Amino acid sequence: MMIDRLKKIENEAVRALQNARDEETLNQLKIKYLGRKGLITNIFRELGKLPAGQRPEVGRVANEIKTLVSKELNSALKRISREKEREAQPQLDITLPGRRPVIGTLHPISQVIDEVCGIFSELGFEIVEGPEVELDYYNFEALNIPKEHPARDMQDTFYISDNVVLRTHTSPIQIRVMEKQQPPVRMVAPGKAYRCDSDISHTPMFHQVEGLMVGEDISFSHLKGILTIFVHHMFGEDILLRFRPSFFPFTEPSAEVDILCVICHGRGCRVCSHTGWLEVIGCGMVHPEVFRVVGYDPEAVTGLAFGMGIERIAMLKFGIEDIRMFFQNNIRFLKQFF
Ligand code: PHE
Question: Would you say 194 and 208 are in contact if contact means Cβ atoms under 8 Å apart?
Answer without folding.
Answer: no
